[in-house]
Design a protein that fits this description.
With 205 residues, this protein is mainly alpha-helical. The chain is built from eight helices and three strands, in the order αααααβββααα. The longest helix has 25 residues, at 20-44.
Length: 205
């Protein structure tokens, strides 16, 4: 049905910010688990595989009512993890440039202001979920939190950067020091990829 995306770097490539064991378990067990659950649910309802993952979200009303929540939860788990891995790079300390930098400066005044606001909102998230940078309906950048595996696509927003704040994303190394994990995330953010996703998002509008 659907396949797991290939991790764009080795398991140890994000060290010391995220350790090898965490990446291995997160990718091979948690991410793969959402994918396997999604494929199983879709097989149960006789789905023929004619949609992309995003189109599954957009056409969720076509599925049986008693399966929709589970399908959305698991497709969100796959989409959110796909973006999370792409949001990071083994190349450290990449900063925004081009159109993304212009958009960040226009919306937040500077990269430093943007970074501080992203970190502030990430620290406000209660329980499990994600902090996203999204392109909203007006083609403007916005930072949002969503709970659990809720994807911004359900609100018509296009996510271009994701920080996973479930405990399994950081607990082996950071334990209860979630704020350290959030801060260190910015050492490995892949703004090259995020810049590409930003340009794709505004071109589609």
């Amino acid at each position: 049905m659907y396949d797991l995306i290939k991790l764009p770097y080795q398991y140890n490539a994000l060290e010391p910010n995220i350790d090898e064991k965490t990446v291995l378990i997160h990718y091979e067990r948690h991410h793969r688990g959402y994918l396997n659950n999604l494929n199983r649910l879709l097989e149960e309802v006789g789905y023929k595989g004619n949609y992309t993952l995003l189109e599954l979200v957009q056409n969720i009303d076509e599925f049986p009512m008693n399966k929709r929540d589970d399908i959305l939860f698991n497709v969100g788990g796959v989409l959110n993890h796909n973006l999370y891995w792409l949001s990071m790079s083994s190349e450290k300390n990449i900063i925004p440039n081009g159109k993304l930098k212009e958009a960040i400066d226009n919306e937040y005044g500077s990269f430093e202001n943007f970074k501080n606001e992203f970190i502030r909102l990430a620290n406000l998230l209660k329980g499990s979920g994600y902090t996203f940078l999204v392109v909203n309906r007006e083609d403007k950048l916005e930072i949002i939190n969503t709970p659990n595996q809720e994807t911004p696509y359900v609100y018509g927003l296009t996510p271009i950067m994701a920080l996973d704040l479930w405990e399994h994303a950081y607990y082996l190394s950071y334990q209860n020091r979630r704020s350290d994990y959030i801060n260190n995330f910015f050492n490995i953010v892949n703004f090259k990829e995020i810049g590409k996703l930003y340009e794709e998002a505004i071109q589609k509008k």
